[in-house]
Amino acid sequence: MTVRPVTVRPVTVRPVTVRPLARRPATRRPVRGSERGAGGVLAVALIGATLTVTLLGVPLLALLAVGQSVQNAADAAALAAADTASGAVAGFPCTAAAEAAALNGASVVTCTLDGLISSVTVARTVAGFALTSSARAGPPA
Known about the structure:
By secondary structure, this protein is α+β, with helices and mostly antiparallel strands. The protein contains two helices and three strands, in the order ααβββ. The protein has a domain at 43-137. 43% of the residues lie in helices and 19% in strands. It has a three-stranded antiparallel sheet with strand order 1-2-3. The longest helix has 49 residues, at 38-86.
């Protein structure tokens, strides 16, 4: 095995020149400090939007629940009138319907009898909205 001689080259060092930084033109992007607080504004906007949707959505959903309650009152009133008309319960059919509707927080608008079949319409006013519902009841066919 033969060993080769290693040649070392001299390293030349070049002088470093430092140039002064040039000023940025005015048309470039604004300085980073001008965007401070943008996240806070976005968070406030999102919270405001969430509150607005909540404040509008909750009463509308409550009206849906009240609408179902009015339908239940109509069903109960029609059944009470049909039971009274068939003789299962003593009294007058439309009076029984009015009492059943009042127990459910509604009032009878119309009450008609066709033999043993009763048709009842009830109404309830909630937050300025008049909710009405109708139901029919009678003996099985």
